[in-house]
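Mods, move this if it's the wrong board.
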Amino acid sequence: MLILVNSWQGWLASAALIGGAVFLGLIVQAAVYAALGRITQRTGNRLGQVFVRRTFGPARLILPLLAVLAAVPAAPISTKLEHFLRHGAVLALMGACAWWAIRFLDLVETLITIKYRTDVTDNLRARKIQTQMQVLRRIVVAGIVVLAAAAMLMTFPSIRQIGLSLFASAGLAGLVVAMAARPALSNWIAGLQIALTEPIRMDDVVIVEGEWGWIEEITTTYVVVRIWDLRRLVVPLSYFMEKPFQNWTRHSADLIGSVFLYTDYGVPVEEIRQELQKILQSSPLWDGKVWNLQVTDATERTLQLRALVSACDSSRTWDLRCYVREKLIEFLQRRYPKSLPRSRAEIEMQPAS
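Not the wrong board. Structure tokens:
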């Protein structure tokens, strides 16, 4: 009976010790983060406020787990149970640290998004930095998860022996894995190349597979292109490193658009050129950089007139082209209706027999 009492008392003391360690860790974590929260609010430090908010969850695990690791050796428990508790705490601590690192990366991405905004007119540098951050963040997160999982598995002696055995035959195993994971590896490498060489960025205007749209999302394996009619085109990352595509905002967002008109030979070209200048000067879509009107072709029936106009981005260029086309046609219909394309025919009357 005394052995049972002692055993029961030992279990109670161990539970109280470990529970007290967890409680102490939670108190320390709450006190530290409460102090950090007050300091950041008093000083108006936005970086500190975001840091406290993003890392609060992982810290609630890390500090109590550290306290448990420190308290377990002092608990009156068997060696086997002590090893079990220490092993479980170490595994949980590894997962919590990986979680903390991922939340810290989210914090960095949030700060970069706040500092480099894309909802402004000249957002080339902001799109460049945000694209690099998003791609690199996904790659680093994947690496953190893989390393944390590998470290947790290597704490098991049986799995460690399997890993050493596989390492001994790594030649054949590596070849098999490389063949099986070739698409994933190619996309992963393509992601690094896109982050470094920047063939595409967030919100770039591209033409892919004959579709015109914007780069909406870049992940570690694919890119989402938002088509002008709100459809989504999902393209593998490796596509942008292996196949040609058009990027209309590679170095700047401004574009030159063209408007073609087909008129009769009797059209007054100089007056149309002056009218084009008036139309552009009255339109807020024109950026004031480029405009011109030229006769670019002459067929047996019509003249081809090409008007060049410029705007600050692709959407405004499209709207400006449509606006100029409508106004020039309206001008011809109002002032020179006979200058619109027409077919000429000559009728000869035969004398009566």
